[in-house]
């Protein structure tokens, strides 16, 4: 089992998919991940590859999830999908050590952790060095650092990045990867790490509170908002209590989607214009968007992945007539610095003719 994490920027899923593409066709890999928002964006992308299955926890952080919930998810994957490997993709602000310890407790059940792999954005890591405790902790508690987007950085930027990473962790290997499909990480490297994390964790566990490693702390770093055009998604709020307890103020809530509207595709030039206005405080924008096109339907269905002025659109024609997306023209999750997201999400929504949920 392998844990993959990254600093609030796209790249983890692309790295994982490039890894899986090198495996034999009969090799079964299942991805367990958590996602912000109400559309399983990376699951839709993964469904276009030869991955065996995807299990997602929406709006949750795996390293903060109760051990029982992680245990149940892993056992269900083992018993229903019978994979050769499970890759866990944690959230961009996750603290990996707590999740690694959860997996260690499951060793009697047949689970074993290969290691923790951290994907570092070579262009933007420096922006988090002072503002994000999670960036420092992730770089320290890891068995391998994969440097993505290094081809876009200058020699000076790369020197500064390596210096910063070495200050945090001078023993962990650092390997440059990409851009896809060039130079992907090798399966024999990722799946053969034989983690050294537990020795480090046991020696420093008592000091985690001092450096911000307690469960749940990192949620303060990220805020999210949903924007949409057309059919609204379902809003869910659910959590579990210790020993089966319940509280009056906590209940599961589901709001039915609004009345289904005709598809209102977004113009690509308008999308370019509005995304170009986003500031550095917005880390990511991801979700589904239907763009105007010359197709008989008048639109194409795309997955949008945005980070710091760059974005990718992945057309998925199979979703054009998906029943679960009827009436959905746009459904995006905006993620960024706490205190900044709500105002900037409203501006983005206004520019695209969307609403904020």
UniProtKB/TrEMBL annotation:
Signal peptide: none annotated. Residues 230-261 are annotated as: Disordered. GO terms for cellular component: cytoplasm. Residues 11-173 form the CobW/HypB/UreG nucleotide-binding domain. InterPro entries: CobW/HypB/UreG_nucleotide-bd (IPR003495), P-loop_NTPase (IPR027417), Zinc-reg_GTPase_activator (IPR051316). It holds the Pfam family cobW. Residues 239-261 have a biased composition (Basic and acidic residues). PANTHER family: COBW DOMAIN-CONTAINING PROTEIN, COBW-RELATED. This is CobW/HypB/UreG nucleotide-binding domain-containing protein.
């Amino acid at each position: 089992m392998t844990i993959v994490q990254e600093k609030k920027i796209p790249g983890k899923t692309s790295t994982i998919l490039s890894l899986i593409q090198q495996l034999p066709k009969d090799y079964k890999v299942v991805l367990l991940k958590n996602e912000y928002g109400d559309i399983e964006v990376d699951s839709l992308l993964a469904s276009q590859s030869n991955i065996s299955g995807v299990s997602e926890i929406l709006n949750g952080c795996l390293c903060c999830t109760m051990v029982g919930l992680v245990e149940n998810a892993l056992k269900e994957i083992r018993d229903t999908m019978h994979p050769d490997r499970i890759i866990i993709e944690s959230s961009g602000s996750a603290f990996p050590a707590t999740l690694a310890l959860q997996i260690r407790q499951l060793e009697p059940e047949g689970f074993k952790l290969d290691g923790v792999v951290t994907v570092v954005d070579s262009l933007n890591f420096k922006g988090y060095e002072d503002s994000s405790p999670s960036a420092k902790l992730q770089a320290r508690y890891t068995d391998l650092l994969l440097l993505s987007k290094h081809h876009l950085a200058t020699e000076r930027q790369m020197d500064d990045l390596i210096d910063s990473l070495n200050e945090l962790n001078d023993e962990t290997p650092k390997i440059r990867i990409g851009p896809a499909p060039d130079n992907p990480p090798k399966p024999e490297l990722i799946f053969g790490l034989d983690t050294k994390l537990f020795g480090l964790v046991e020696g420093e566990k008592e000091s985690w509170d001092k450096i911000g490693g307690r469960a749940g702390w990192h949620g303060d770093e990220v805020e999210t908002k949903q924007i949409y055009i057309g059919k609204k998604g379902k809003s869910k709020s659910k959590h579990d209590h210790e020993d089966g307890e319940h509280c009056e103020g906590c209940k599961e809530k589901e709001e039915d989607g609004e009345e289904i509207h005709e598809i209102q595709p977004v113009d690509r030039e308008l999308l370019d214009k509005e995304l170009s206005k986003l500031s550095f405080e917005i880390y990511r924008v991801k979700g589904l968007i239907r763009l105007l096109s010359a197709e008989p339907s008048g639109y194409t269905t795309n997955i949008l992945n945005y980070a710091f002025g760059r974005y990718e659109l992945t057309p998925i024609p199979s979703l054009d007539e998906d029943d679960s997306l009827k009436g959905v023209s746009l459904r995006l999750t905006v993620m960024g610095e706490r205190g900044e997201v709500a105002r900037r999400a409203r501006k983005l929504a206004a520019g695209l003719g969307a609403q904020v949920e």
